[in-house]
Amino acid sequence: MAGIKLENVDKIYAGGTKAVNGLNLDIRDGEFMVLVGPSGCGKSTALRMIAGLEDISGGTISIGDRVVNDLPPKDRDIAMVFQNYALYPHMTVEENLAFGLKLRKMPKAEIQKRVLEAARMLGLEQYLKRKPAALSGGQRQRVAMGRAIVREPQAFLMDEPLSNLDAKLRVSMRASLNQLHERLGVTTVYVTHDQIEAMTLGDRVCVLRDGLLQQVDTPQNLFDSPVNLFVAGFMGSPAMNFANAELVRGDGGASVAFAGYKLPVPEKIFADKPGLDGYFGKPLILGVRPSDFDEASNGNGDWARMSVKAEVTEELGSEINVIFMIDSPPVEHKDTAALAQDAGEEEDVTALPLAGDKSMWTARVNARSHVRPGDSVELAVDTNNLHFFDKESGLAIGHPANR
Amino acid sequence: MTAVAAGERSTAAGAPRRSAAGRIVDRLGSGLVQLVMIVVALFWLVPTLGLLVVSLREETANNASGWWTVFTKPAELTLNNYARILGNEAFTSSFWNTVLIAVPTTVLVVVISACAAYAFAWIEFPGRDWMFLIVVSLLVVPIQVALIPVAQLYGVLGIFGSIPSVVAFHVAFGLPFAIFLLRNYFIGIPRELLEAARMDGGGEVTIFLRVIFPLGGPAIASLAIFQFLWVWNDLLVALVFADTDAQPMTKALQSEMRQFGTNIDILAPGAFLSLIVPLIVFFAFQRYFVQGVLAGSVK
């Protein structure tokens, strides 16, 4: 096993498109690193450069202590799982698993042992003599994993391996992937566009956008303190709510004013976000996670209140997403525009006919609250988790990386 | 099975209207169309059957009455013509010449074109697409324009009239189409399969032999059959380039044609022998025509 180190890695395609731009990433030995971002952000390109399937235009990639820039894929001692599995259709499952070992001239007995071991681990024993065409999607996926496992490589590279599975299977495969990593402890680089996969699988998650690294951190840290508007909006579902706001100083201390609402800003936030006190009287962007709302009757006594009118409610069983309008135009920033475009590509967002001067917010409340569309709701907000972003740069104010 | 499916399709309410050709294709399995196809097949088979019968009758019998009289006088059938022709040195050597021309040509065309097609499809090198365009444009060059220059060239090289010279000509003119066909098939193989093989430790040669070649099976089999048939049945190239020692069966049979009389006792069995070999080849390879070799590899 080995760590993987990317230093100032560039990828420029013929025609001048810069797919990856000065990427620095230090993947530790045994770590599960997830590369996440919207389509076209360069995450797959980065992975393929580590694999050796794409040339590196600039910078260096090392696996262990070895710079691998000019090594062909087979000499890098890594295994890859492809999005569409790429099983050899003319070989049985057993031959598929053994192929890589055979090419490496491993003794027959050892091949046999490893193949059986991997098959047992993945529950493929009874399918060893079948061809891929006779397997279900989930089984094919497991064969693809098995082909990587038998190699016992320095690192696994996975390119959206679960995206062709149906939703239920994806969840269970996600769990088995976690187990597998736990058991084998092999350094893994995993590419996905699904932020839930990223959050659940990654030891650390690397958010990419337009070939540029945005933030690398543990899933919790990404969620709690995103470095900019893009990461804030990308991680977490439903997405973070944004509004143009202003910091004001009043009798009871500082507060943030937006769309006719006024939420107190605790002193602790100023302590945690140095530089925020320089924004008094200046416009900034406020971000509130849907999960930092609750209904006032359930909420903590000292949380701030907001009265809103529920436009749409999404009942998820364990909780309800309350969608409401605030009287302020949607935040316009290149980061939020990129997010909107990405959301439009991947799923049908319930698009309300928005009047230009209103923006849509989502609050997640307890399922016991029985909010109905059209109801007036008194919401409580956990003001300790307010996020503030610079209006020009989109950077989180006071974030360690932006100081 | 097929008939049921066709029935379902035509009764499906609100199904989109299909073109006339599409509807015919849909009905290919139904009774009437099958009947028509049987008639057409018989129409094509009757002369072949006639040839077989003629080859099995003595020359005198053939001169006296038509081959269909065999149905009333089956006792006339004999293997004498075949015995005679197989004992005829000139004929047997021309049969072997045909084999010696057709088999190496087919092997060479398949091997060379498969290698070239792999390179054109999956290896990056400068000028690749231009070179492929040139190969494609060679498809339209008729062989007739090359007969005289190539004959001169063979004269200079001193190989004119030999079997290798005939093989070389066939290979040269078989390659453009072969490369075109295989390259277009290979490019349809999912890129990830090759990348997976590369990650598994395969070099270009391994990928070609262990992944591309098996997956290209149907295309390679069809190419091999067609190439074999073309060369086996060729007369033009043999007439120009093969001298008497190297002449294949087509040319040998042609030389047995007479202005008066027919030599039917040589022509009929010879023609039938030259016909039976391609049939055997076809039936031997036809199981490789199965579709869906790639099923299950991706997604």
TrEMBL record, chain A:
Domain ABC transporter: start-end pairs: 4-235
Pfam family, one: ABC_tran
InterPro entries: AAA+_ATPase, ABC_transporter-like_ATP-bd, ABC_transporter-like_CS, ABC_transpr_MalK-like, ABC_transpr_MalK/UgpC-like, Mo/tungstate-bd_C_term_dom, NA-bd_OB-fold, OB_MalK-like
Keyword GTP-binding: no
GO cellular component terms given for this protein: ATP-binding cassette (ABC) transporter complex, substrate-binding subunit-containing
GO molecular function: ABC-type transporter activity; ATP binding; ATP hydrolysis activity
GO biological process, one term: carbohydrate transport
PROSITE patterns: ABC_TRANSPORTER_1, ABC_TRANSPORTER_2
This protein's UniProt keywords: ATP-binding, Nucleotide-binding, Transport
CDD domains the UniProt entry points to: ABC_MalK_N (cd03301)
PANTHER family for this protein: MALTODEXTRIN IMPORT ATP-BINDING PROTEIN MSMX, OSMOPROTECTIVE COMPOUNDS UPTAKE ATP-BINDING PROTEIN GGTA
NCBIfam families per the UniProt record, alphabetical: PRK11650.1
Protein's recorded name: sn-glycerol-3-phosphate ABC transporter ATP-binding protein UgpC
Source organism of this protein record: Bailinhaonella thermotolerans
TrEMBL record, chain B:
Transmembrane among keywords: yes
Pfam families linked: BPD_transp_1
Principal location class: membrane
UniProt KW keywords: Cell membrane, Membrane, Transmembrane, Transmembrane helix, Transport
Gene Ontology terms describing biological process: transmembrane transport
Matching InterPro entries: MetI-like, MetI-like_sf
Protein name in UniProt: Carbohydrate ABC transporter permease
Gene3D superfamilies reported for this sequence: MetI-like
Localization per record: Cell membrane
Family: Belongs to the binding-protein-dependent transport system permease family.
Residue stretches spanning the membrane: 32-54, 99-123, 130-154, 166-186, 207-232, 266-285
Domain ABC transmembrane type-1: 95-285
Membrane topology: Multi-pass membrane protein
Assigned GO CC terms: plasma membrane
Species of provenance: Bailinhaonella thermotolerans
Alphabetized SUPFAM superfamilies for the sequence: MetI-like
